[in-house]
């Protein structure tokens, strides 16, 4: 598993009646693949995994793997409250043919140091799939500390970290402590260029769902040392990237996909599509972005 590059956390596409819209899902996958992304992540927050049934998750994973057909790795996100459920999805992911796992700390319970480490090790020891630990204390209230990563280094298949602490210096802190033991991928769109410049290996991206070419261009320019070229795109992109750090990021990004022609805005309850002043505000941000979209 090569944990380097741009990994879209793709949205799950629905029809207005709430049923899966696989045709639009595949259309968006085409846009991602044509733009040169390096992997696809299924079942994250943007994928609305919490409102999908078990059968729908299996269908989405199976059909995505079949459609992508080995062109890039497919990563399955695991966000569960019970250790046995996380192990179930690790085993199911292996059975379905995913290339790796993205793993959050236990959900809905504020686990302590020992419990978090034990949870991660239990899942890692249950599978040979490579794992990326998702470290997002802002949204999920559990900080995976450096001392936890010290203990997790014993699990060879824990290979990468989705860095979403909002602390850019954590990239340097992790490099100083672990060298290249863990690959580091930025998980916050508004800090992506900064963390890539500081040595992050990749970008788990959100607005890539609507703007894949621009996202990949920023990554490629930074890694080629062409910072001015990257910065020109990044400055244009930032008002759009800020849609990723709002509690309604799913609705915002899905609306951006729809306006960009590669998605629909339909979400599942309890989420609702945008209305009123909020909708006008977000539409205006997206409209300005589309009107001034850079020529690559």
TrEMBL record:
Name of the protein this chain belongs to: 1-pyrroline-4-hydroxy-2-carboxylate deaminase
UniProt KW keywords: Hydrolase, Lyase
Record: residues binding pyruvate: 204
Record-linked SUPFAM superfamilies: Aldolase
Highest taxon listed in the record's lineage: Bacteria
Keyword set includes Cell inner membrane: no
EC top class named in words: hydrolase
Family: Belongs to the DapA family.
Active site, renumbered: 134 (proton donor/acceptor), 162 (schiff-base intermediate with substrate)
GO molecular function, one term: 4-hydroxy-tetrahydrodipicolinate synthase activity
Originating organism: Indibacter alkaliphilus (strain CCUG 57479 / KCTC 22604 / LW1)
Coiled-coil ranges per UniProt: none
Enzyme nomenclature, EC number: 3.5.4.22
